[in-house]
Amino acid sequence: MPRTASPARPSTARGRSRVDSFEIISAPPRHPVGRVLGLLIRLRVELFVLTLSLTVWIALTPDHVTGADGAPVAVPGTGLDLAARASVCVGALMLLALLPWTRRFLFHRAQAVVTRHRLRQTLVECRVVNFSRACPLFLWSRPTRVGEVVWLFLRAGISPNDVAEQVEEIAAGCYAREARVTPWPSMTALVRVEVIRRDPLAPATIRSEVFRWAGGTGDDDGPWTDVPSPRPERPAREWPVPAPAPAVGDGPAAGRAGDWSDYV
To answer: Where does the chain cross the membrane (predicted)?
Structure first.
């Protein structure tokens, strides 16, 4: 029985499929201790507030001793009960929120912490990372008169231009009106990111007498205004209508005045 001939296989050159080349970059393995340490550094403010709150709550808790039946018994005069502790904590929070200087300090500090987290998330989403998929190091964030400032330390493989190209995304991600990126003159790896939220030179904060005089009043006792008031309407001025020239009358003078044939 004759053997069935198998179909001829295409040559390697002809059978090779043409595909675009690409490169797969895998992240290097990181030690779990390093990842946990980085998370603790990023959440240092939240952990400090939580630790301080727990410390105050435990300090106000009365001491307990073990009773005859083995159940804990509170020692009289060594602390506050649950209702009193809750009242003290709520009163302290209300006092911090009512005082203007403490309210502004806590609000601006909390906003700086939120800006730091939002900036890191924006840079990660915009792929401002190196080939090891590591984003810049966030050193410090603090509030300013116009917003917040975040200091970054760029890792190897990231340039200040990579961060500066994402200013619109940074402003949108931080809920701000503008963002600016300025590298440190003596060291390019240190970058200052300014998140602009307020304009201290807004028209509402500058009072000028030009608006008052533009309204046509010119008085110094009138109320301040941010926009020029309309000029008061004045009655239309009546201009005198000139009398019509008299017609040429009779007489030698009038006739000579109207006859130019003697002078031509």
So the answer is: 45-62, 82-101
